[in-house]
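hey m, so remember when u said the tokens were messed up on ur end? i reran from scratch. heres the input so u can diff it against urs
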Amino acid sequence: MNKKTVKDIALAGKKVVMRVDFNVPLNDKQQITDDTRVKAALPTIKYIIEQGASLVLMSHLGRPKGKGYEPEFSLKPVADYLQTLISAPVKFAPDCQKAQAEAAALKPGEILMLENTRFYKAEEGKAKQAEGMSDEEFAAKKAEMKAKKAEMAEILAGYGEIYVNDAFGTAHRDHASTASICKFMKAKGAPCVAGFLMQKELDYLGSAVENPKHPFVAIIGGAKVSGKLEVLKSLMKKVDTILIGGGMAYTFLKAQGHSIGNSLCEDELIDTAKATLEEATKAGVKFLLPIDNVAADKFDAEANTQIVGNDIPDGWMGLDIGPATIKAYAQEIAAAKTIVWNGPMGCFEMAKFADGTMGVCKAVADSDAVSIIGGGDSVSAVNKSGLAAKMSHISTGGGASLEFLEGKVLPGCAALDDK
């Protein structure tokens, strides 16, 4: 993924269209409660403006229905917040598909933030097969949505002379503002390049996939095996050790013949879990499961708890890895030279079940390894731990980082110009 970046092209006097990931959480007063993603894009934004270009910013926010303006999903509060972080004037266009006049009027050093791209269904270009819809009607609907996505991408491409993608969190999707826009930019000879955040993501994740230092340890947690099967298969070809935690561990423990009480389990994947364990053995990969667990009598912050071994008593459920497992995992982490972590070790949102995740956080922070935190809940956990500054790289894209580690092509990255 050796892509051109904003530093590889001349920006002075140009109009730049840039995809950012400003999908930030807002409270009921439309105030940003976590500005990580906004601040992550600032280096690229400031660089473009300092080079004498004007800048049109695009993003989605939340999951609007795609039927037009929905105030709770407006990017106006984000544009207003961006203005507090940067000296350049930040203007706002209330309709992302009808901002031709605002974009044309932009002067060097000015920024225009477009309204939520997902206010239009054409951004994603998806078609759903409604009940009673024939296959022929569904095919026609898909073709219609594909055409609308292309139309929207062409409109967005008309706002500038250069396209920059700094939204790694959406790079695994072919949307109008991420991949499709590049077809129309390139058709008019316009560069399509990565921003600094995108470059950093590709550099760190790329090195983990293509040329990691060993020992290479992968820490994989989260609720379900089904969401992590592909990444496990891919990592088994690269890593020396896999440490398993979270709800997904109990499907593996049951596959080994252990009792898991009322713990989360995907029974339909028991055979798959067995096969995965066998594949790890054949590949010579250490595949470690919890040797003790924090069990609770109910899924509740005030539940009664006990430390148990690999077998969970009837009526109880495993909600975190236990102290012996934390110690064993920490030893593996301490010896690592490369660490990839995706998914918490337990229900860390509740204090009684946070020790496993926080223990792993501390072990990763204390290690000398290159540590890559692969988005999603892992990022929330690291931020909660207060140890984020000690991690080498915290990915801004949960789904995108997972798909990258799985070896999948990310459309938003693939569409950019190669060096």
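this time it looks ok to me. The radius of gyration is 23 Å. if urs says something different then somethings off w ur setup not the seq
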